[in-house]
Amino acid sequence: MRFRASVLGKLLGRSSNCMQSRVPSGGVCDVTHLPGAVVTSRHYHPNGDPPRILITGSLGQLGSGLAALLREKYGRENVIMSDIIKPSKETWKSGPYVFADILDFKCLQEIVVTYRIDWLVHFSALLSAIGEQNVPLAIRVNIEGLHNVMELSKQYDLRVFVPSTIGAFGPDSPRDFTPNVAIQRPRTIYGVSKVHAELLGEYYHHKFGLDFRCLRFPGVISADTQPGGGTTDYAVQIFHDAIAGEHFECYLRPDTRLPMMYIDDCLRSLWEMLVTPENLLKRRTYNVTAMSFTPAEIVAAVQKHFPDLKVSYRPDDRQKIADTWPKVFDDSEARRDWGWRHVYDLPSMCDIMFSKLRAAGVENNTALADDAVLARGM
Ligand SMILES: NC(=O)c1ccc[n+]([C@@H]2O[C@H](COP(=O)([O-])OP(=O)(O)OC[C@H]3O[C@@H](n4cnc5c(N)ncnc54)[C@H](O)[C@@H]3O)[C@@H](O)[C@H]2O)c1
């Protein structure tokens, strides 16, 4: 049976204790392999229906891939994509898509009610480099938007996932094997907003029982969508330049080591964290990563495929940001507590990036314009 909090409990903002039961017979939640797993039924309908999931900011780098993954697991109609920009025809045809401005609380309430949402994945954000260019907007989207998400999730008893980042650390944090708990004094508004999100989410969890889950991602590398203005974007751009036969100019110094992850690993870690039974989560915010490399190292790996690639380095403001971030991330607690394992390292990521970009026709300059590119008029 799915637990329903009493109306009074909801008005008081109190959430209920989870009832424990087996995985619904439809097998929608594949976590029984984890030792000691106790699966909770709170977020399933009494008949074992799969969860209904809303993704905010879903037209960015991570959203469409996550929607595809979740739709494969839970069904097309159960995953609602949303954003404030106009979707491409492909996105529009792929499943439910709605307009949702993260700053409009009523609009969010309406969507949660109309679509009977159980889980919320909150992707809307201004990333590190873009955030520094428009601090007031970053404060609105990343902080006020997060307040709406927290209240909404409390009000409707949603399981909520909010991504954090290596950018939630700063110059005072240990930069080699940065652990889950360390000094966090970031120097970007992006980092400040993410520390705020981690703390507020954990506070709502302890105070109101909110099922808040958060992973700190490193730089994410993907072939299908354009990056959204982060400090690690160079590690995507290099593949496009190499395959198009263009000169690659890197805005970071060649020795700038940062943690990174291929998108398939990133999205799988998110899903695994989403479905990990509560009793295995020793904390609500975990580091996850796959590899760490410098621009010089990725250049060498890419030159194995494209030996003629020409490279120059012209550090800009993003160098100052990167210099305060972890070089190597310690994700041993995620590996221990809920079995996180990455698949892609630098060479295997290069292989898959080039095969995907070739399949998309990027080398012939026939790459499909994705939603983000359309929206930004790039
Ligand atoms: N991509 C990475 O390397 C990376 C690394 C660590 C964490 N993250 C986190 O993952 C999440 C998704 O990242 P991404 O790379 O897809 O970001 P992105 O910048 O590509 O996409 C963000 C989306 O948010 C939307 N948005 C902006 N303002 C909005 C508003 N008012 N209401 C609703 N939507 C709005 C944008 O239209 C955009 O589609 C972010 O929270 C980011 O901080 C990403």
How is this structure best described in words?
The chain is of the alpha/beta class and 378 residues long. The protein has helices at 7-11, 63-74, 89-94, 105-114, 128-133, 135-155, 189-208, 234-243, 263-275, 295-303, 317-322, 332-338, 346-359, 371-376, and strands at residues 53-56, 79-83, 97-99, 119-122, 159-161, 164-165, 176-178, 211-217, 219-221, 248-250, 258-262, 285-287, 291-293, 311-313, 328-329. The chain has one domain: Rossmann fold, CATH 3.40.50. Strands 1, 2, 3, 4, 5, 6, 8 and 12 form an 8-stranded parallel sheet that branches. 38% of the residues lie in helices and 14% in strands. The protein starts with 6 loop residues before the first helix and ends with a helix. It is globular. Mean pLDDT is 87; it is low at 1-32, 366-370 and 372-378. The chain is built from 14 helices and 15 strands. The structure holds nicotinamide-adenine-dinucleotide.
Topology, element by element:
Blueprint lengths: L6 H5 L41 E4 L6 H12 L4 E5 L5 H6 L2 E3 L5 H10 L4 E4 L5 H6 L1 H21 L3 E3 L2 E2 L10 E3 L10 H20 L2 E7 L1 E3 L12 H10 L4 E3 L7 E5 H13 L9 E3 L3 E3 L1 H9 L7 E3 L3 H6 L5 E2 L2 H7 L7 H14 L11 H6 L2
Parallel strand pairs: 1-2, 1-4, 2-3, 4-5, 5-8, 6-8, 7-15, 8-12, 9-11, 10-14
Antiparallel strand pairs: 11-13
The chain binds nicotinamide-adenine-dinucleotide.
Nicotinamide-adenine-dinucleotide (NAD) binds next to β9.
